[in-house]
């Protein structure tokens, strides 16, 4: 019987099956982790064939980038943003209430900001400083604490009023208006999110869904109980080598981190502060970490690699070269 990592890798398009466009990848996984767009682009590469980085437009028409699962940034299909925010927005607002209070963001100020943002952003996306200036011109003034603005904007995003817009420079976000509403009840949205999760993450348990979504264990169990059993994953062929980047959904999608990464090497992959390192997977099991610096791609194995795995890594590096349009040189260190 195929191992759990191999089945999950196949479910996540990290096995024999691959998508041919970005929308199909997003649809399969339900959402893509997106605090670092370059890493999200590499997540699409690992699950698709034939695309180039320039063709993976996660800020383009049909996608929304906003705070969703666990209160972190994700890219979702625009048609799904409303009902996902309707379900997860209240959860994220509740989790952020204490920090907002520490930053002087009381309920009255937050409500005024939500009401003012459509006027501030009426002419199109703006950077954070410009949004703060625009709010101040309408009487919504933030204190000197540097974290007040991002927490306020995240609060507004939880209502579907705004989302992130195109990056102004790498890592420098803009904000745009969003008209996101939901026709689903909470129970319907909960069941739908669980269905979407299982489509791209099975085999999985309620605890995995709770860890991925940020919902309570009670909600996760109720959601799974409401669903018909999903179609089982097609038995994958062994020998799949895939190189995934920072914060890859495969490494963030389950409660048990040792299912994909041997326990003694978890600290090499999850290095603290929520950081998840680029990883080499063989049939869904981590065998090495990797790093791209300029045109040099270095691989650090956990244990000695077979010739077949080394050949698979070279094939992946060749594909990353094609995808990025930048010639890369590969080096593999000793374990």
Automatic annotation (TrEMBL):
InterPro entries: AlkZ-like. Keywords: DNA-binding. Pfam families: AlkZ-like. GO terms for molecular function: DNA binding. It comes from the Bacteria. PANTHER family: LMO0824 PROTEIN, WINGED HELIX DNA-BINDING DOMAIN-CONTAINING PROTEIN. This is Winged helix DNA-binding domain-containing protein.
